[in-house]
Amino acid sequence: MSIPMIGKVIKPLASDALISEPHLVLHVTSGSANTLVMIPMEPRRSKERVYFVGYSYFPLDEAIHQLESDNPKLTILDFKPRPIATLTDRELQLRYRRKGQRIAIPLRKRSRRYGLIKRLVEDPSAMLLFDKEILRVKIAQRAKERAPTDDDIPRLEEAIYRSLNQYWAGGSDRKALTPYSDRSGAKGKRRKLNKKPGAKNRPTKAGIEGVEGLVRSERDDLIIRFCWRNYVIPHTTVASALRSMWTDFYSIIVVGTDGKARSEWLPISQRPTRTQFERIGPQQDQNLEAWRIHLPKKGYEHLYRPLLGKATDNIFAVGQRGAMDSTPADVELVSCDSRLARIGLSHRILVRDSLYGYIPGFYSGLERPSGHTALLAFLHAMSPKKEWLEDLDLADEIPLEAWIEIAFRQVHADNTDLRTEAVKAALKRINVGLSFVPTYRSDLNAVAETGHHIIHRLGDHHLSGSNYGRRTQRGEQRAEFRARHTLRSLERETARAVYTHNTIELDIELPLPMQDAGVRKTRLDMTRWVMDQGKVAVHLLDMSTLRAEILPDIRGTFHRDGIRFLRPDTGDKRVFVPRLLYKSNHPAILARMAAAGSPHRKQKPEAFDAIFKYHPYAARHAWFRDPHTLELIELDLSTDDPSLVHRATYYDVIDMKDRAGPERYFQEDRQQHALGKLEEGQERANRLAEEDYQSALAAYGKEPTKSEIRANKSSNRAREHENHCLDGMPIRAPESSSAPSEPLDTDPAPINVEQQSMEGVDTANENHSTSAPKADDSIYRKALAHRRHRETP
Amino acid sequence: MARAPKITMPRIAEWLREGVGQGHGEDYRPLPFLEIRRWNPSAISNQVWDWLPPFIRHGHFWCRSEWYLALLFTWVGARVREQYPLWPWRHPHPAYGMDQDIDATLPWSSGIIQICRDAGIDHGFFVGTRIPYIWSLDLLLALTWVQEPTSGTLLVSVKPQPIERHLMPDPIDRHLEKLEIERRYAVEIRSPYLIATATQFPGPLLGQLEWLKSASLMPQGGTHDAILQSFLDKYRPDLADRPPAEWIDLLESDFCIERSVATYVIQHCLWKQYIDCDLSKHLDMEQPPHPGGMALRNTLRNYLASRQP
How much is the ipTM here? Predict the structure, then answer.
């Protein structure tokens, strides 16, 4: 129940409230009297006179009603005295006593006023003063006591009234009777000028009136200081700055006889003189010291401004506001397919929660910061990390529970990557807002900036090829010479550093509820605890929707064996992304693959193109949105090199193909060489075989007929198999044998066509010496010896 | 780097045809050159681009103070239009078009050029042109609980005062002139006028509203709405004595829903004040909520409605 208490302030909240301005409660009478005595706290001002009005009566029940309802019209506040009314006598004396004064004027006035009412307010029956009749009588009585003459009584009565009102309105305290000396002129207060100060100019000395010069107003001083700050710059003179000021601020537009407008300076007596310019201009502000004036623009704001708050003020929940910023990683990298090829620095975008600085995701890649990469970082913060950890071979090292998926409802960033229409369009679809720091004030995005420093120190600066975030020092080996890590390994190390950042124990004092709950002092545990409490900015979007809205598009085409993506960087030329093939057994995908692979299709290949969603840094999956059902269908990667997902990003795969271009040129030449050599050997073999055949033919004497060729084919084959083959393969003689052990059989061959191939050959080469090995089978030996002999160049 | 759009009369005419600065609610769109774009970052303020319930339109707020105030007034029940154009020429009352039956009764403004002329203040042009500048108002509120359309339209000027302004005043700064013209404009259209800044309100109130805003929308008649109604029917009398964390547990166990959904429903309760909870005080989820949120909202409503034209 809200009851007005003596000494409390009642303030109106609505125009139809019981009172129209704040009142101080002086007396409360409940019961049948039902009266509330209140006095306005603020004095009235009339013709430079300041005075307080007296108290009034109000119905108590009405006041309580207006205080208590669900729709309150009054509220209760604590009383707060004027600052000067808190000073003791000694403090007043020290502060306001001037030279030659024994007692300071405010103190003297206060004492005199209190002397007038002291007997009234210190009387045990002072409460009766809240009856207006009694008040009037008592004041009259008091005035009569104090007045030297009867003529002074009315003046004294009025003075007592005024003092009493001031006493009550100031909280019924003697100090409340202090005059408003703090509002009188004091150091720093501007003096009113009636004429131009300083020496008279020559015309005035000569008696000419109206040219005394400009009597500066406060605005004139403002203009002069402004022009001194902004116009007196290097390569300009004070005189030209003064003229610029006259043109810009002390001129009027005059239309000439030619109809053209031009600016014309005011008369000299209405413009600041050079002396005034030089004197007032450097006086920027009495509160400003020299170092402050000479700071560069925004230097003060950046370095010395009193900090009234922090970037994390008004953050109460996880995901309420995320901070995002990009930075180059301080590590020189090498290519993943050639460790000798340097590829320079990569870029990193961190996403950090503003509540405790937890990092739920990041982007690490070669692409420059852009809306595209910023969205990828944003998506990474929201995505489950299981597959990602597996791809980085960190699944055993970093527990999956250490990663919290956070979908931020507002992202704070500087005016770079996120300030694009593409990002706004994507974030609008998932109801996420953005806020931007002022220009050149990245220090106001402290959450993200400190995150950079931490990750640089935890990760980058411990890796081979680190440039330590500074220029190479004299005698130090350059970072690119020390480069050893690939983009993928840097991502892995960044993941490790982020994990450490999130789970390292902090040197802080936890809030008491966290201490009670036994929460560890890590960003992860603190964030998770707050989330478990329900203090998380909720979103009800599923991952499918997020992917559909955030992931970039890529054109691909359906094939009989799957879906291949087309490189986005080749224009109209259709070039497939190599080695990556996506498949799904979803009916919609299978139908399209079947249509594309049909031998009877009449459409061009372009007819089977479609837009897909892909994650450039997680090639394991891609997505296709069915235009009919709007379902986002997940596609699985099918590749001949499973290590790709662990070692390479999507861009690396494209890069591999490009990088292999020169090598492929020579590779093709080597292929041609090999094929040429093969064909050359085949040609020679054909020629020799033909020669053998012709020899046999000559021995036979005539061309065998077709029936002779077809006859005995089975028996010939069986004899060949039996005599010259082992397991159906020709018997191979040992190559170490060098000389024949017996002379060659030179018997003429029978004319049987079945035997012509072997025996005929022997006949034709009977005079040839050979190095055939010794073998059990003489026919075989002969044939082999003959062949070797022929193949000898 | 994107550039500022070149202001020409045909372009302004095109904006007018497109209805820029004229719609209400979801259809409203501020002046294109006052939308947060690549080319117009602020040198001194945190710009905010975010949506305000019950609409999904993203608003363009040129400082965080504007954003917080717009959020606060939205929570109270007002409909906010940001960067509302004050056209140089004669134009209808901002409430024009909301209700066709009363459109004819609404006063018209003579235009800012005329108001400036009466006040002896230079109106100004777009830089480098002779096209009159289009002044704008930081926030324009439609107080949905006020019947009278003119007094139910509140003009709000959000004016933060950074320290630099005090220490190094700028004679080119026309804030006072601008405020005076806005005041005269408000008088002319018989609508109240308010100058405010976010620091006038408790930080926890603004921060917690920002947090709860993400749960402010819940489709009527949907699953979540049905769960919420059942939950309130069952537990409403007891909830004031139980901590919000317990509300979530109750929802989760009684309705067999995911914790994220339960959290969403409870946050929606807090935003809507179905359970009285003073959001100007730090909300401890382990303690029963402080009552006073409804009174605070009503107080703010009364305060806004009591502003005199």
Answer: 0.94
